[in-house]
Design goal:
The protein is an all-alpha fold and about 180 residues long. The protein is built from eight helices and no strands. Helix content is about 75%, strand content about 0%. The radius of gyration is 32 Å and the shape is rod-shaped.
């Protein structure tokens, strides 16, 4: 791999099939200046390197450090879009798992840490405060971030089912357990 800037400048120019005169005109310098840069008799200033990067469609890293050619804008957009989609999917999963974790902790607390006298306090705290507030917060997050687009309204059904299961999984199961 080439390590000097002069040979990289020359190789990039030749690959674009440009003459020294054409590049000199684009950069606003003389043809002799281009020749001196390519033969490493002198070095371009950073502004000229940036202009050459644009003209030759190579990255600054390629010219200065020897990195590969610049990706096309479409490749860059595709890569960026994939990162954004990946983050959005991760956020969706975290949101739902957070809700499910609160729900599961509430079930565990009911079955392992409450006795008959604690049931009313548990009911007030979980079924009337914690679960509705958690549902409200998760609903806001889903709506604000536009998770699942039009399908986000299906979460109304999901939250309703989870709320009914919370009551069933606690008090109704406890009554059946007693009989």
């Amino acid at each position: 791999m080439e390590h000097d800037i002069g040979s990289k400048i020359k190789a990039a120019r030749l690959e674009k099939k440009l003459t020294q005169e054409q590049v000199a005109e684009i950069l606003g310098v003389s043809r002799q200046t281009i020749s001196n840069w390519e033969n490493e008799k002198s070095y371009p200033d950073i502004i000229s390197v940036i202009k050459m990067s644009d003209c030759y469609e190579v990255s600054l890293d390629y010219l200065l450090k020897g990195e590969q050619k610049m990706k096309t804008y479409y490749d860059y957009l595709e890569e960026s879009t994939n990162v954004v989609k990946s983050n959005a999917n991760r956020n969706k999963i975290i949101t739902i798992l957070s809700y499910m974790l609160v729900w599961a902790i509430a079930m565990i607390v009911f079955w392992f840490f409450t006795s008959g006298s604690d049931a009313m306090g548990y009911s007030l705290m979980f079924l009337w405060i914690i679960l509705p507030v958690t549902t409200f917060v998760v609903s806001i997050v889903i709506g604000k971030n536009d998770f699942w687009k039009k399908g986000k309204w299906a979460f109304t059904l999901f939250f309703g089912v989870m709320y009914m299961l919370a009551e069933y999984g606690t008090f109704k199961m406890d009554k059946q357990h007693c009989f």
